[in-house]
Amino acid sequence: MTETVATSALAEELGPQLRGDVIGREDPRYDDARKVYNGMIDKRPLAIAQCRDQADVIAAVKFGAKQGLDVAVRGAGHNGAGLGTVDDGLVIDLSPMRWTRVDAAARTVTAGGGSQLGDIDHAAGGFGLAVPVGILSTTGIGLALGGGVGYLSRKYGLTIDNILSADVVLADGSAVRASEDENEDLFWAIRGGGGNFGVVTSLTLRAYEQPTMIWGPTFWPLERSAEILSWYREFLPAQADDLNGFFAFLTVPPGPPFPEELHMKKMCGVVWSFTGDPADADEALKPVRETEPVLDAVMAVPVSAANAAFDELYPAGDQWYWRGDYFAQIPDEAVALHAEFGEQLPTWKSTMHLYPSDGAASRVAEDATPWAYRESKWTAVYAGVDPDPANAEAIRKWTVAYQEALHPYSMGGSYINFIGTEEGQDRVQATYGSNYERLAKIKAKYDPDNFFHVNQNIRPAS
Ligand SMILES: Cc1cc2nc3c(=O)[nH]c(=O)nc-3n(C[C@H](O)[C@H](O)[C@H](O)COP(=O)(O)OP(=O)(O)OC[C@H]3O[C@@H](n4cnc5c(N)ncnc54)[C@H](O)[C@@H]3O)c2cc1C
After folding, report:
1. Could you tell me if 266 and 197 lie in one domain?
2. Domain range for residue 365?
3. Cα of 325 to ligand 1 centre, how many Å?
4. Confidence (pTM)
5. Which of 165, 320, 332, 384 is in Cβ range 3.0-4.6 Å of 179 for a Cys bridge?
């Protein structure tokens, strides 16, 4: 397919079929429309099809297949490896499909395929409900298809554990429903298999009565990081599911609500969330306070506010280089390495998070969904972040060195949503472990030609 043929076909053939816009390279909106969250990703698709509804998606899929184009599917474009876009291909951009519907009696939230997590939080919150999602409100549905770790994982499981059904446009342009009763194999596969099986145009999720939680960070001086991490690795797994807290190395942001004397200080911290009876929160957090953190900003907040608290710190356009690992334990040698790399945070926005993936998230059979690391206690992300492209190499070097140093203490694979660029196919296979073969067979059934390959790719079984 030459660019000329594809470009003219895009304008003449695809454009009129869609209610949404098809933005080609000549369009003044092109540079904005091709941007994804990670400023390090600079891809130039032939066009971006801004789909407004399922019919638009069907037309775009059929067109992409007919023209033999590389097709990327974009939700909110947050993927660290930039999988929501593609050079010289077609982007099926779901961002106009941001809508939600709550069934309060059934405690479910249905969200359009381009919805952001904040849309789900907001919709559910209006009914005093919450859905377990991630810790930034601007992330998209791609999170839900890969796993979904967040503040509510220990209590209610991963996001994939709370998917009840999905509407999916398949590679042949047909539209199907996947649930426990319909296309069960597809339903199994989309709960962790990412965008490999089709375009999810809407998703119905289970919600819980959880209007608020006791949430917020405690910080300690960096010099105490080995001591605090050693305490944390024992403390949290022994607590009831009501308490969650992700450990982090961080630099205190230079503004409110943080006290001025801490601004721009490298520290270690835990961001806590307590989902039990608020009256019990002080008791649950008593051992935390006994460690004498220098900052204690734990307070009652709506779940949606907690999930949006870091949005401002991490706006779209920063450079991101990241990798992940699963951990079942954090031995002393690993604690020492964490402390060493925590001291070397290359830029003030760079960070490392240990997201708890035990509790309810671990009480699911390893083959119940594609997520193969139910025995993990933490899902780690090493994230080099900076607004300035001049620091791209520095954040890359730190992230790679950190992950390579800690990887020998990990369980082997990586959370599919945290796999970065340049990590390769072996890493995808390791991530799915014993579930890979089943995924490959389902891929062969629903997408035998690997039409959906701009993703952490599962190759169709031959
Ligand atoms: C700042 C930041 C914070 C994050 N926090 C968390 C967190 O707390 N917990 C967590 O688990 N993860 C977190 N993530 C990781 C996140 O889960 C992934 O980046 C995920 O890929 C984002 O989904 P998206 O829809 O925004 O991505 P996009 O870049 O739009 O898409 C990524 C991939 O998902 C597929 N995809 C997206 N939507 C659809 C759809 N509707 N149908 C079919 N395929 C689709 C695409 O094909 C593509 O391969 C975070 C990421 C960032 C950048």
Report:
1. no
2. 212-418
3. 17
4. 0.96
5. 165
